[in-house]
Amino acid sequence: MSRCQAVWNNIHIQPNGNTLPCCAWPSSVPFDRDAVKTQMSLEQSVEGCAICTAQEATNQYSLRQYYNKQQPADDIVSVDLSADNVCNLQCIMCSSEYSHQNAHREQLFLGQRYNPDTVSSNTLYTDINWSNVRYLKLFGGEPTYSPGIAKFLDWAEDRIDFTRIRIEVVTNNIQLPTTQLDAVLRRCAGVRVLVSKDGTQGVNQMIRQGTPNNYNEDDHFDYWESVGNELWINTAVSIYNALDQVNLQQWIHDHRSRWGQHFEMVQTPHQLNLQNMPKDLKAAYAAQPMPLEILQWMQADGTDLFDQFLSINGAFHQLYTMNLERNNPVLYNYTQASKQTPSGFDTIKEQYI
């Protein structure tokens, strides 16, 4: 299936003001809404839909399937809003496009920033016909931390009837919403919460660099349970954390049984994609406990990019506290047995993004 209702009914606003049909559409692929509608109506393949196509090929639940469950409409009825890229973390699979804190890493790794401006922001939401909107997804950066979201809420106060809108918040759960955002969440038509959590404590901190050691995660989960009527933990699964997912599933069962879990398979940077591991490393992973969804994804054909991974991993270890030996001993032992020495910043200018 090539048709996706997002092309007709959703607008994804990136921090720099660029617009796409959804968050899965790559920034590098130009988007012309009318042209893509025509392609889909003719059942032609669409370049920007490659991520969903790859997920569906391995029985993963795709964003396309999510949008196609919604009632078709003749106008934009849902908005994904990133008002800026201001974030409190430096996730290793992210870029400066969605976190201003990653700009310094890209300067070290690439000699330039992926996002030309360290901080991007926009007010494109002022151009939308909000009378037809029924769904609003708040991205970042980090929406509980974002000055752009605060500015949007100031603008929206007398312009948007939030009692008619279901809101989705995508958050790393480190900072609670402002009083202003909390008030909106408590009067809107419903709240869907996606907490980004990529593993148990040490693994999550390795993936989401900057995560505090002792912040009150339990109180924050309690807050979201008090306002949310649909609760999800969203896990970005990569070469680093795939083997921790059984542990995370057990943690969710034991501590947060109201929450579902959704796996988002990391596809870029390509070196972190499980499909691009060497065959013998895939076999070593497959011998460990692993959710079936991840196993099916990993076993699909890819390109062996482990040499490039070693360079990036070496650079990460120079920049961050990774503790790979503790957090993923299978991967750690494999890297130690590799004939290539991870050399860090000076070798990865063509490999990082």
Task: Give a description of the structure.
36% of the residues lie in helices and 13% in strands. By secondary structure, the protein is an alpha/beta fold. The protein has one domain (6-305): Alpha-Beta Barrel (TIM Barrel), CATH 3.20.20. α7 links the parallel β6 (166-171) and β7. The longest helix is centred in the C-terminal third of the chain and has 14 residues, at 306-319. The two termini are 29 Å apart.
Write the layout of secondary structure elements.
Blueprint: H1 6-9, E1 10-13, E2 19-20, H2 33-41, H3 50-57, H4 63-68, E3 78-81, E4 90-91, H5 103-110, E5 135-138, H6 147-156, E6 166-171, H7 179-187, E7 190-196, H8 201-207, E8 208-209, H9 217-227, E9 230-237, H10 245-255, E10 260-265, H11 279-286, H12 292-299, H13 306-319, H14 324-327, H15 329-337
Parallel strand pairs: 1-3, 3-5, 5-6, 6-7, 7-9, 9-10
Antiparallel strand pairs: 1-2, 4-8
Shape: globular
Q: In total, how many domains does the architecture comprise?
A: 1
CATH structural fold name: TIM Barrel
Count of discrete alpha- or pi-helical segments spanning 4 or more residues: 15
- Taking pLDDT < 50 over at least 5 consecutive residues as the criterion, the unreliable ranges are none
Strand content range:
5-15%
One letter per element, helices H and strands E, the order comes to HEEHHHEEHEHEHEHEHEHEHHHHH
Separation, N- and C-terminal Cα atoms? 29 Å
Structural class: alpha/beta
Architecture per CATH nomenclature, i.e. the level-2 architecture: Alpha-Beta Barrel
Strand order of the largest sheet: 2-1-3-5-6-7-9-10
Radius of gyration: 20 Å
